[in-house]
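1st attempt posting a full record on here, be nice pls
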Amino acid sequence: MTSGAAAENARSGDIRFASIDDAWRLADMHAQRINEGFLASLGPVFLGRLYRRVVRSPRAFAVVAEEQGRIVAFCAAAENVGRLYREFMVRDGLVAGVRSAPRLARSLPHVLETLRYPASTDELPDAEILAVVTDAGAASRGWGALVVHETLHELERRGCSSVKVVAGASNTAALRLYERCGFAPTQQIEIHAAVRSQVLVRATS
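the predicted structure (as tokens):
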């Protein structure tokens, strides 16, 4: 667990790894709380399949914070995001694609850009934080920092010495959270045309 204000604010909750039964809750939180990027536009059905793969994959995981039995925050991460995406396409892509076909058709260029994205950061750590989400009713109480730090501990345990995260260059709230958690801005990239994103990196220990 972390120390300081975040742990003090969140001391009444529990931290654990997400299970397959949590995937739809994570998808719903992502769809409601992350309005940048195109993944949210694909809807909770697609996101549910994606988070099912995250929690089932040996290369990925999600840490959740619960308060009174309800998930109020989570952090999802992968040891290698490129391999996770390939695993998702092979094992889940057909089902996810059929169920979200109209949305995917409208977003096909963004899908291809996302699949190509990891190659644009080859010189940076393979491990990546995929998403950090806090429920609206639990915002500003330290949950986000808590799940990020627990994720860093797990990545270190898995042998990942450093980790990157990508956030919209104009998403000041996310950038402040990551910088408070020890991440340092490294470079800006364009995953999608004309949309600037900031890449931040930190050591896991």
